[in-house]
Design a protein that fits this description.
The structure is a single chain. It is built from 10 helices and 9 strands. The protein is α/β, with parallel strands linked by helices and about 280 residues long. A 9-stranded mixed beta sheet has the order 1-2-3-5-4-6-7-8-9, sandwiched between helices. It is globular.
Length: about 280
């Protein structure tokens, strides 16, 4: 691990053949609980900006760019979700995070489940957003098609198409433009490496082993995702609750940040006994 020059909040975490970029935010309260954010495919850690701004006074926060995304290096060999789960645990180790509430978006869901399989004691609570525990039927072919499409057309065109698929029609221009910019900035090699991991993963058997408080979140207009999470995740995870974010697609934390953050804060207030509250 290396610490960013002149900024102890920035971490570089070495892996086998790439490194990971991470940021921490720590309030004055030294015993504030930790919350860790993990981004989706084709986004970076800034997808959580609104949540970090809202929680910064109450939590110690760790967010990072998944492999090949943002400022994290692209893998030089094929990777799977066991690798991505190990990345999460390595970043937590580097930041001296013994245990935390984990919030994962889309690809971040199997990343978190893989890490939970390795070390369930590291997770005080789980927030799983717009993601699945296993590759959906036909998913491998769909991902192969998207990889080929991104390669043929370039990430800029792919970004516009993806943003249109992920966001609802009424989303304002600046929000749409920022998401397109984020996706387009994702290196193709990093996107492809993680998309290939999404072609074949299965952590369904981990769901009944989850004993910590769990919140499931889905955008109301994220295709079949709300129904899938309601049918395949909620009944299997003991005590799990499901919240649907109105007027949101695949990235509700980004598209409807106020509504998403309100749901997240209500869950944290109920389930995290050691929350450090801002003095008023």
């Amino acid at each position: 691990m290396t610490i960013g020059a002149g900024d102890p909040r920035i971490l570089r975490v070495a892996r086998k053949n790439y490194d990971l970029y991470a940021q921490t935010v720590t309030p004055e309260c030294a015993d504030a609980p930790w919350i860790v954010f993990s981004n989706s495919l084709a986004t970076d850690l800034t997808v959580w900006d609104a949540q970090v701004a809202a929680l910064a006074g109450r939590f110690r926060i760790l967010r990072y760019d998944q492999a090949g995304h943002g400022r994290s290096g692209p893998p030089q060999t094929p990777i799977n979700f066991d690798d991505l789960g190990d990345d999460l645990l390595a970043v937590m180790d580097a930041a001296s995070v013994e245990s935390a509430t984990f919030v994962g978006l889309s690809m971040g869901v199997p990343t978190g489940l893989a890490a939970h399989r390795r070390a369930a004691n590291r997770f005080e609570a789980l927030v799983l957003c717009d993601g699945q525990a296993k590759t959906a039927p036909g998913g491998a072919a769909n991902w192969a098609e998207r990889i080929e499409g991104a390669k043929a057309s370039g990430m800029q065109t792919f970004a516009s198409e993806t943003a249109n698929r992920w966001l609802t029609d009424g989303t304002a221009g600046p929000t749409r433009a920022r998401l397109i910019e984020m996706i387009a900035a994702t290196p193709f090699d990093g996107f492809a490496a993680c998309a290939r991991a999404l072609m074949d993963y299965d952590f369904a058997d981990e769901l009944p082993r989850i004993a910590c408080p769990t919140l499931l979140v889905a955008g109301a207009e994220d295709g079949a995702m709300p129904e899938s999470m309601a049918a395949k995740l909620k009944p299997v995870i003991s005590g799990a609750t499901l919240q649907i974010i109105a007027q949101a697609g695949h990235v509700p934390c980004f598209e409807q940040p106020q509504a998403f953050t309100a749901v997240l804060c209500a869950f944290l207030d109920k389930n995290c006994a050691k929350i450090a509250r801002v003095k008023t």
